[in-house]
Amino acid sequence: MTKQEIIAKTNAFLVEEYEKDPAILKSEARFREDLDLNSLDYMDLMVTVKRVFGIMPAPAEMNLVVTLGDFYDFIEKKLNEPSPIQKNE
Q1: Is 26 left (phi over 0), alpha (psi -120 to 50) or beta?
Q2: Helix segments in 22-66, DSSP class H
Q3: Residue 30: beta bridge partners?
Q4: Contact 70, 27 (CB under 8 A)
Q5: How far apart are CA 18 and CA 83, in angstroms?
Q6: Which pLDDT score is estimated for 84?
Q7: Rounded to an integer, what distance in angstroms lies between the CA atom of residue 8 and that of residue 22?
Q8: Which is deepest, 5, 51, 65, 78, by most CB within 10 Å?
Q9: What residue ranges define each of the domains in the chain, with the CATH number in brackets?
C-alpha cells in the first residue's frame, strides 16, 4: 500500500467515523490538541486500524504517535514489516 493510499484511508475514516473536518487533516495536526482525540478515542482508533489496515498496534506504540504525519508513517512502517512467519524463515 502506498503512502498516498494510507493517507486517503486514514483521512476517510477520521472524517466518517470520528467526524473530523477534512480541513484540519494535515500531517502536522496533533492528535490530542488539534484533532481532539482522547485516550478512549485512541482505543477505538486501534480497532479501526485493525479493521482498515489489518494490523493491531500496541497501546505503547500508539503513545509514540503525536501528529497525523507520525500516524501515517507508523502505519506505513507496520505494513512493511515482515510477518512473524517471514522473520522465522
Answers
A1: beta
A2: 39-53, 59-62
A3: 67
A4: no
A5: 30
A6: 62
A7: 11
A8: 65
A9: 3-81 (1.10.1200.10)
